[in-house]
TrEMBL record:
It comes from Lactiplantibacillus plantarum (strain ATCC BAA-793 / NCIMB 8826 / WCFS1). Residues 77-258 form the BPL/LPL catalytic domain. One of its GO terms (cellular component) is cytoplasm. The gene is birA1. Acts both as a biotin--[acetyl-CoA-carboxylase] ligase and a repressor. InterPro entries: aa-tRNA-synth_II/BPL/LPL, Bifunct_BirA, Biotin_CoA_COase_ligase, BPL_C, BPL_LPL_catalytic, HTH_11, Transcriptional_repressor_C, WH-like_DNA-bd_sf. This is Bifunctional ligase/repressor BirA. PANTHER family: BIOTIN PROTEIN LIGASE, BIOTIN--PROTEIN LIGASE. Biotin binds at Q114, K187. Residues 21-40 bind DNA. GO terms for biological process: protein lipoylation; regulation of DNA-templated transcription. The lineage of its organism: Bacteria, Bacillati, Bacillota, Bacilli, Lactobacillales. Belongs to the biotin--protein ligase family. One of its GO terms (molecular function) is DNA binding. It comes from the Bacteria. Keywords: ATP-binding, Biotin, DNA-binding, Ligase, Nucleotide-binding, Repressor, Transcription, Transcription regulation.
Amino acid sequence: MTTKEQVLTILLRHHGEWQSGDQLAQSVGCSRESIWKAINALRKQGHQIESRKNRGYCYLGSRNLDAKAIQIYGQRQFTGPLEVVAQTPSTQILAKSFLSHHQPQFAAFFADEQTAGYGRLGRDFYSPAKTGLYFSLVVPNPTNALVNVGLLTTGVAVSVLNVLQQFYPNKNFGLKWVNDIYLDQHKVGGIITEASLELESISATAFIVGVGLNLTTTDFPRELQARAQAVDPSMSVDRNRLAAALLSALVALSKRYATADFLPAYRAKSLVLGQQVTLQVGDSVVNGVAEDIDEHGGLVVRMLTGERRTFTSGEVIRVGLPV
């Protein structure tokens, strides 16, 4: 590692603690002048490092996404490619491009801003710079089978919600089937899962999981203001630390999602169970009462006729309105 990377590693591991210039120089094995130069270089990259005479340096966080910081916060357990870009049309596109040139493997792509971010059914996902966290994770599929794909999306939703709950312990997040994260009846995050298909064998070599979170966003377009909001505009979390926690949780989930052990937690956080719902399924609109999430992540609905039907695709477009 370079001197700058070594200094960043030490500061992040002692986040909020003071480290003297002598301590840093001794740990890295260089001069105090080299430490000073490294600190200045890190500051130029957006790292907030306070300095005081006779105390040294204290790491306070970062305004920018930084691949090295994400790796360090994650204790370098994520060993696949990890890329951070300032702007891209969509991190899903970055991930798909990667898969077109590489064998399936864990790989993560973060963007500070997306100019054409999208969710399910190709809907736009507003992704302004600095105020959100937008990333895609390539998840290799060793079996190539397409079964239980619904479980991956529901599992990711629970994992993301759990991590958010750790960073925002006073917030009460909920899940709207199948892929939306809600707070105070407004959407704060969305998830999309796409498959990298082998058409000849009708199998999936990998999945691409996209996550978009509105953290401090306040300037939503008019058409979104009634249904979208930020998690907390007044609370700035370190996005690199949040990114590392999410990567760790999603990689762990990807290795066990077929067990469906997260479904009780999904049901407990569901905003639709027990509610009258309207589903858009293709060109059809379906009304009924959402009764359960089945063992494959499907939504079980009791229709107006009394029949129970399970839906593995579609979108809940209304909740709690008369059917």
